[in-house]
Amino acid sequence: MNFKKLLAQGLVWRSLYFASMLLVNVFLSRFLKATGTGQLYFLLNIFSFIQTVASLSLEAGITYFSASRLVPPNKLLWFSLCWSGAVAVLVLAGTYIYQYSLLHAPLSTVIQYCFFAVSYIAGLLLTNYCSVLFYMQGNFIVSNAILIFFNIAFLVAMPFLGTAANNASVDIVLNLYFLVFILQGLFLVVAFAIINKSWRQISFPSLQQSGQVLKYSLVAHSGNIIFFLGYRIDYWFVHINRAVCTDADLGNYIQVSKMGQLFLIVPQIMASVIFPRSASCGNRVELSTALMTLSRLLSQFFLLTFVITLLFGGVVFKAVFGPTFNQMQWPFLIIIPGIFCLSVLVLLAAYFSGKGVLRVNVVGNAIALAVIVAGDYFLVPVYGIIGAALVSTVGYFVNTLYSLMRFYKDYSITWADFFKWRRQDYVWLLNLITGGA
Question: Which residues of the chain carry a pLDDT beneath 70?
Fold first, then answer.
């Protein structure tokens, strides 16, 4: 399948998946309100950090070595499955010790948190590993169809589970929400094994191959952890500065961040195609053209988003998420330029990862993290979530600027190539959507 057809398939199916995720977010937000949503998503942020650390970024190694045809995908499947199982056991033991021995929580609470942690962390590991294996085969349909199915099933079930005024109903909704993650991961494993007849060849990478996969993954891992902290550490600053930030403020701010994540959908879809194409030494001109064209189109999209948010954001956010989300407009306006920078950065990071030049991503993320930590330390205690949004935008800009400078060394492009609007970009986009040449 050619590059544009891969982009189009990825765009359609990943967009459908993220649309289903948005609906889940909306329903949960209206069910739990701003305070409950903030508490849930703060817990998920902790779980996500554990999952990021525990993943060892094997999905990067799986992508690189599968796309380069250096390790068979079936071996990578069994390797990642065993690692996910080992992580699940460690997470179960760690959560039990923390909740029961250190916090002395009731047994029912311990069991619930163990279930939450294992379902979310192990489920995400399996989902990420299996999804990239499907993507390496040019298949964006099966994995996303499974994820969409479970999201829709959760949405269909929610109206029958009661209201947030009933604590038992809240527990049922949360249990079902976390159950979805592990079910998605397990179904993806089964689907990949059936399609590729993996049960007929249960084997693992050799010690040499495993070492190469781990070596590559661990370099990417350092960059991913730093990036995660740079993208999420502002949650902690908002959470601990109680003098200026309430739980409702935290809920509003995390919702702003999650909305920003939605605007990264298209760049992430493109990155999932750019990475393997770059790793397999795809056409340099085709890659650079796609990167620069997408950046120019994204700049126009984010300008339009800024204007719409400025005019109607306050009304729209309260209408969609509920009246308790009444502080989203200004932080979102401030963070929009940063999300645009992050969109360009996602594309550039995929290019550098595919080329094996992971140091660029690591250094850029480290610089951004230093900027964000320093900025949040001084501004959040004074300006609250407005300060957090401003600091994040500055950090993302610095990171993107560094990556652009390194990309310039490979292609000798000008800044105008990335940001000056061109009429032929719309022709490129139309061809992408319609499947033209």
Answer: 1-4, 7, 67-68, 162-166, 272-287, 410-417, 432-437
Which of 16, 14, 319, 21 minimizes the C-alpha distance to 154? 21
DSSP string covering 111-172, please? HHHHHHHHHHHHHHHHHHHHHHHHHHTT--HHHHHHHHHHHHHHHHHGGGS--TTSHHHHHH
Confidence (pLDDT) at 36: 85
Nearest of 190, 273, 213, 178 to residue 55 by alpha carbon = 213
Q: Which stretches does DSSP call E strand in 303-410?
A: none
Angle between helices 424-434 and 284-321 (to 10 degrees): 80
Longest dimension (CA), the chain: 64
d(CA 227, CA 261): 14
Count of all residues that appear for the chain in the document: 437
Q: What is the CB neighbour count within 10 angstroms for residue 381? A: 15
DSSP helix/strand/coil, 103: coil
Q: How far apart are CA 237 and CA 61, in angstroms?
A: 32
Say how many CA atoms lie within 13 Å of 69 toward its Cβ.
3
Give the per-residue pLDDT at 47: 93
Describe the chain by its helix, strand, coil percentages, rounded to 5: 85, 0, 15
Q: What is the pTM of this model?
A: 0.77
Closest CA to 90 of 131, 48, 51: 51
> What pLDDT is stored for residue 168 in this prediction?
76
pLDDT at 285: 63
Q: Looking at residue 334, what is its pLDDT?
A: 96
Q: Are 15 and 265 in contact (CB under 8 A)?
A: yes
Q: Which of 331, 313, 346, 245 is nearest to 42 (CA)?
A: 245
DSSP code for 102: I
Report how far apart the first and last C-alpha atoms of the chain are (Å, whole number): 13
**C-alpha distances in Å from residue 321, one per residue of 27, 84, 332:** 8, 34, 14
Residue 310, SS3 per DSSP: helix
As given in the structure block, the two tokens for residue 197 are 């007849």
Q: What is the CA radius of gyration of the chain?
A: 22
